[in-house]
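Batch job 17 of 40 flagged for manual review because the log was empty.
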Amino acid sequence: MSLDTPGLVPRPATRPPRAARRVAGLLAIAAAPVLVLGVLFVLPVAGMVAEGFVVDGRFAPGAVLDVLARPRVHRVAWFTVWTSGVATLLAVVLGLPAAYALHRLALPGRAVVRAALLVPFVLPTVVVGVAFRQLLGEGGPLGFLGLDGTPVAIVCGLVFFNVAVVVRTVGVAWESLDPRPGQAAAALGASPWQVLRTVTLPALRPAIVGAASIVFLFCATAFGVVLTLGGVRYSTVETEIYLLTTTVFDLQAAAALSVLQIVVVVALLALAARLRATPDPTAQRAVAPARAVRRSDAPVVVATLLVLAAMLLPIVTLVLGSLSVGDGWGLDNYRALTTAGDDQALLVPVTTALLVSLRTAVDAMWMALLVGIVVSLIVTRRSHSVGERRVRSTLDGFFMLPLGVSAVTLGFGFLITLDRPPLDLRDSPLLVPMAQALVALPLVVRSLTPVLGGIDDRQRQAAASLGASPWRTLLTVDLPVVWKPVLAACGFAFAVSLGEFGATSFLARDTNPTLPVVIFRLIGHPGEANYGMALAASVVLAVVTAVVVLGVERLRVPGVGAF
């Protein structure tokens, strides 16, 4: 029959609906980062889980239950819970006054103080452990307290490491609070304490609980601090996995503990995400200007100064210890960094390890940034349908999975899965940078998504309506807003890589170690010279990290938290 036959209309070529085309394009763009995470995260974690559940080629979940029934595992789990809980409580109690003083009061030099309080959080965990050993050990300023090698020392190290999380997270929310409800309550006769209890704290509850959940997560997965201060006597789940793998060689027990840790950490992350999703009346408000300090603010200011002093004391003690030589002072410990230490404690000098750390950090930084930018663009673009929104939400959760697995578990997974063809990466110089990039990736994404999500999509639409291509729109609309946060994300990824110890302790070779690994080896070898070298190396690593973080702090976007 001819198409010219009356009554017949040619059918137009069918095209997929616009919503389906957008979802397909979204999945195509996401394919590369999904593949990266699939190979470098899902595969190692799956291999680690299989190590615990598969015995002699058979699925045997009872083996995991047998490990979890051991009395030592119960002690380790309880020690992890109570030390993390106490440290979280103390971090919140100490951090709230500082958050108020540094984000709501016009204190002189408050930007410097905020930066100083941020430095402990990004210090390598091994450096924090060494600093507290020097502070609390025999001959240290607080050695008379007898706290060296006790759980109290571990809790103090965890608090030192995490106060900055509370200060920054709660402080950003506090400076965005609408002051009018509190002013109205005060005008009606409420005392400052009543205003705080009935108006301010209820408004800050999502930020406080969210910060506390993240601090508990960081404490429960702390590695370098606990390993350095607790040794083999006091173990958390994190350090027990390391000891079972490297000392006892019980890979099945290590895998079982890793499974337990994954379940708990993912539950904590889900709780934190739900708390972040709680409607926050401050979310859309501009940053409130800081007010002048009043006499009634004196207790808060004094408390903040005490917190600052407590944060600086271990660092000052570390620096002074590195300069102490016999009965005097000198740079002998720093000159020894070009040697292998007493009794050949090291295979390579500390200076070589520093260069390895710097090269590794650069590689980890560009890897994390490359994947993080793509992920941030994917999850922040406007969704035009329910299906597209669900896909973006699913991808966002998938890309945050590395945050739900500790670095030790990740390094363990790399160790047992990426050592055979077709993915034999054990001899690859990029193995350690890849593991560190995965550790830094969630931080990069969380640094960029608030900024990209805050760009008005109408600006992109206007640029497109004037004929701009997607790339031209990205360069003219997004780049001017996001370049500073991108540099800040680079700095944080670099700093995280410099101090990463959990995964690197499994993967770094003896002939090519990073500086945190070398520091830990030095404190494990007897001899005053080796310990002095460990102190000097810790100062060098702390200075490099602090310089990077202070530079990042100058690029901070007002109203956007760092965590």
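Reviewer: the log was empty due to a logging misconfiguration, but the result itself is present. Confidence is low (pLDDT under 50) at residues 279-285, 558-563. Unflagging and moving on to job 18.
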